What does this fold into?
Amino acid sequence: MAPESTTPIGSGLESRLIDAHGRRISYLRLSITDRCNFRCVYCMAEDMSFLPGTQLLTLAEMVTVSEAFVRMGVRKIRLTGGEPLVHLELLGLVAQLAAMPGLDEIALTTNAALLARLAKPLKQAGLDRINISLDSLQAERFKSLTRTGRLQDVLDGIDAAQDAGFVRIKLNCVVLRGRNDDEVLDLVEFARSRDLDISFIEEMPLGLIDEHDRASTFVPSAELLAKIDQRYPLVPTTETSGGPARYYRMADSATRIGVISPQSHNFCNQCNRMRVTANGQLMPCLGNTEAVDLRALLRQHPGSVDALLQGIAQAARIKPEQHHFRLDAPPQIVRFMSMTGG
Ligand code: SAM
Ligand code: SF4
It folds into this structure.
């Protein structure tokens, strides 16, 4: 059943979401679960406790939240997590979003471990785009970085996604010194050979981990770009995928190389997004703690888009100008990336 709304057109809350710093919000990242079948060393602790199911948004609540954001001008929704493919109702959610007027693009970020069997049904349900996380092409190393993952499952998932008709799939790779920084050229070569785009991400200090010291494993994007440029001269582009990545092209390939540099190259002035966590907390900024409790609004006013519009407008008012990530101090943000979904 479509969520009800009584907000009159022209009430001022619809079709535009502009924050206090003049940034237009058009992109929602919806974390549909905090659970995951991997335990990546930069993202999670080895022993994780997850939220009780009653605290997570239901499928109907996620649809109502999405509807509210679309009514306020959001045109792209990315489903993330945790690992979105472990959510049993993912296909139903994608199908409902695909039928939502005004939403131009539904994207997914996944570790791809379950993609071999889900790629085709996801395409049929109406998913537009896929980003796949891949930090190593060496099976042993992949295992040690993800703690539980099998590289072959991910490679099979990439094959299945391409067979299902997904194009311009993007790989995401978090680079850690001494762990996988020597594989950057191999990963670029893999992306070129498979006609994939690839983005290299600087690790963010989210959540308390003791597996490695983030300050000593930090690799600035500029270092990677210099290494890649020596083998494949890079041409900067002004292209954007509506995110924080800066893109480069190579003369002899369709592959785009992106870098996401939250530490070395602040991109907050272009931020066009908000995030909703799996338990319905609307986070206007990944690098700060401000939140609006959409779940409380949803449970006080079940199915009401209107109640959410006020909460979303409030989040736009409190969205900070920028994040303040620091590697030389304990993390100020103790929630893990798996809560907010990358
Ligand atoms: N499980 C899915 C996946 O791994 O693609 C989606 C959720 S994951 C949190 C989204 C992205 O965040 C992944 O590309 C992951 O590599 C990245 N990520 C997780 N923790 C990070 C951190 N501390 N710093 C930078 N990127 C991180
Ligand atoms: Fe899971 Fe993704 Fe976090 Fe890895 S990065 S632990 S796959 S949520």
Summary: The pocket of S-adenosylmethionine (ligand 1) is lined by residues 36, 42-43, 80-81, 83, 109-111, 133, 172, 174, 201, 203-204, 206, 337-338, 341-342 (CB under 6 Å).
